[in-house]
Amino acid sequence: MHTPPIIQGQAPDQIYTQMKARNVTASTAKLSAAHVAIAGAGGLGSNIAIALARIGVGTLTLVDFDVIELSNLNRQQYKLSQVGMPKVTALKQNLQEFNPFITIHAYQEKLTPATISKYLSSADIICEAFDAPQEKAMLLEAAGTQFPAKPLVMATGMAGIHSANTITTKQLRPNLYIAGDGTSTGAEGLMAPRVIIAAGHEANMITRLILGKTTI
After folding, report:
1. Rama region for 189: left / alpha / beta (φ>0; ψ in -120 to 50; rest)
2. How many CB atoms lie within 10 A of CB 207?
3. Torsion angle, CA of 130/134/137/142, rounded to 10 degrees?
4. Mean pLDDT within 54-71
5. Measured between alpha carbons, how far is 136 from 147 in angstroms, rounded to an integer?
6. Other CB atoms within 10 Å distance of the CB of residue 162
7. pLDDT at position 4, please?
8. Which of 48, 81, 108, 158 has a Cα-to-Cα distance from 131 of 20 to 30 A?
9. In angstroms, rounded to a whole number, what is the distance separating the alpha carbons of residues 58 and 42?
């Protein structure tokens, strides 16, 4: 870990305590003990991962087969210098700069019904952050079959420049939460503001679940 001069000489536990000083009271220990798996490391996944890393979610599993392209940079949390890198590798690199005190598992793999158990079974909460509707449907069906008691947080509908107020979180059934406006599609274009809003909804729901809040 690179240590800026302003904090040199401080013990790691002192640094971590100060980093989490503004967390909600009595939340840090529960967050530190949690394990969240994020399926997808694009516009949703990269923003969700950063939010969870910053507040101190102790273990993150990142799964995505893709590499960073120039067209990703208008909404995904990567840098020009990282174009061409596997998304999970670059995201892990960025997260470790935000919070070096958490554990990050990064897998450059494509999730299928046959591999979901391998990569997601150890997580407390599964987060869906795919682009393609068919991938979302696949994860919904497979996770519901293989892990019916495990919370699944998803998103659909964050494209365009529509009102931010149309993005909400809904609980469709026990252990299933979906954020977004439910209607807008990527065909009309995807940009950082609405994607980040939807990602924030997902990250906030995950945080609530970790802290024992199961309602929206």
Report:
1. left
2. 21
3. -90
4. 98
5. 16
6. 15
7. 66
8. 81
9. 21
Q: Which amino acid is at 137?
A: A
Q: CA 120: distance to chain centroid? A: 13
| Pick from 170, 163, 157: nearest CA to 198 | 157
Q: Which of 118, 113, 127, 104 is nearest to 47 (CA)?
A: 127
Amino acid present at 201:
H
Average pLDDT value over all residues in the chain = 96
DSSP code, position 24: P
Number of residues written out for the chain: 216
Model confidence pLDDT, tens digit, residues 128-165: 999 999 999 999 999 999 999 999 999 999 999 999 99
For 174-181, which contacts have Cβ atoms below 8 Å and span 24 or more sequence positions? 175/148, 175/149, 175/150, 175/151, 176/140, 176/144, 176/151, 176/152, 177/151, 177/152, 177/153, 177/205, 177/216, 178/153, 178/154, 179/153, 179/154, 179/155, 179/205, 180/155, 180/156, 181/157
Q: What is the residue type of 208? A: R
Span 199-210, mean pLDDT? 98
CA distance 173 to 192: 29
Q: Which residues pair with 157 in a beta bridge?
A: none
User: Look-up: residue for tokens 């890198």?
Assistant: 85
Paired tokens of 214: 């199961």
Question: For 132, phi and psi rounded to 5 degrees?
Answer: -80, 135
Structure tokens at 190: 């995807």
Handedness of CA 182, 151, 33, 87 (dihedral sign): negative
Please answer whether residues 194 and 161 qualify as being in contact, where contact means their C-beta atoms are separated by less than 8 angstroms. yes
